[in-house]
Amino acid sequence: MCSSCVPQLTDIEQDFILTLTDRYPRPVFSPQGPSLRELCVQALSSVQRGYDLLAPKFDHTPFRTPDGVLDETVRVLSEVGPFGSGLDVCCGTGAGLMVLRRLCHDGITGVDFSAGMLARARSAYPDATLVRADARALPFTGDFDLAVTLGALGHFLPTERPGLFEGVHRALRPGGILALPLGAPPPLTSVAHWAMLGFDLTMLVRNTIVRPPFVMYYCTMSLPAVRRDLTEAGFAVEEIALTALGRHRDGGPRYWLLLARKPIDRD
Questions:
Q1: Three-state SS for 92?
Q2: Span 38-54, pLDDT tens digits
Q3: Neighbours of 208 (CB within 10 A)
Q4: What residue spans define the domains of the chain?
Q5: Residues whose CB is less than 8 angstroms from the CB of residue 1 and which lie 6 or more positions away in sequence, other chains included
Q6: pLDDT of residue 17
Q7: The pLDDT of residue 20 is above 50
Q8: Selection from 193, 209, 224, 179 nearest residue 88 by Cα
Q9: 199: buried, middle or exposed (CB in 10 Å: 19+, 13-18, 0-12)?
Q10: 50 Cα distance to chain centroid
């Protein structure tokens, strides 16, 4: 077939496809992934119960943090370290533990409130210390040099983020760093933007009429809002554009890495 006979994609369609393939490299309905019915059951459960159900197939869904984001996070942090002990907040099946294992020389710890996700992480990272706890009430004080959290912020309402970050701040030693990869929102004119907004509105309606709620929102974790919450929790925040992971059609990076450092007490 001649190239002139092939339909050409518009800029908006190209941006939408790139967004999906960058963020979601695995098909949801793959043979190894969850079925539509399983996802519906999960979505009608609480966050904790939903992830207990999804855990055996989670790594075969697009919800796992892409390997490219993990590799770029390691690359940036390797230039900032070295690090002693590491903490993965909301570790799930262990994507953040993979990052910490490559950077920390004094042991790694994962925290999650889903027993099912922790069981998968334990199988993949038997050398890690795994703790079942609510990330909004972390049971640590001054124990870690590096913390990461990957793909979990959408599970916290904006009013809950300050408490989450205060707990991570408390868990870090002076000079310790919280590394937080954050996807930049697609342009307002893109199909991806309206798809994300539609998802959030659907979740809002679902949580209005169904109990318990399943908290997962994409449009509430903008870069300025997250940076503000980190600063108010006591962190000094640096923003690094992960340009190796591509740019949106408007030229903005698709991903940022926030490095939030706990200041060293000079007293």
A1: coil
A2: 777 777 777 777 777 77
A3: 9
A4: 19-25+66-183+221-261
A5: none
A6: 37
A7: no
A8: 179
A9: middle
A10: 17
What gap in Å lies between CA 104 and CA 115, rounded to an integer?
25
Cβ contact 159:217 at 8 Å? no
The H or E element spanning position 157 is none
Are 87 and 144 spatial neighbours (Cβ–Cβ below 8 Å)?
yes
Eight-state DSSP code of residue 219? T
For residue 122, give the nearest of 91, 150, 145, 149 by alpha carbon.
91
Identify which of 179, 175, 222 has the alpha carbon closest to the alpha carbon of residue 72: 179
**Per-residue model confidence as pLDDT tens digits over 198-216:** 877 887 888 788 888 877 7
186: tokens are 């697609």
3-state class (DSSP) for residue 220 = coil
- Per the structure block, which two tokens stand in for 198? 């539609």
Amino acid at 188: L
Residue with tokens 């990076």: 253
The rounded distance, in Å, linking the Cα atoms of 144 and 84 is: 7
Distance of alpha carbon 251 from alpha carbon 195, whole angstroms: 20
Q: Which helix (H) or strand (E) holds 119?
A: helix 115-124
pLDDT, mean of residues 79-96: 93
Chain-centre distance of CA 106, in angstroms?
Answer: 24
Instruction: Return d(Cα 267, Cα 264) in angstroms, integer.
Output: 9
CA torsion angle 36 41 43 49 (round to 10): -130
Nearest to 39 by CA among 31, 51, 48: 51
**Average pLDDT taken over every residue of the chain:** 82
Task: Specify the CATH number of the domain 19-25+66-183+221-261.
Answer: 3.40.50.150
Q: Nearest-CA neighbor of 151 among 242, 69, 241?
A: 69
Residue 178's pLDDT is: 98
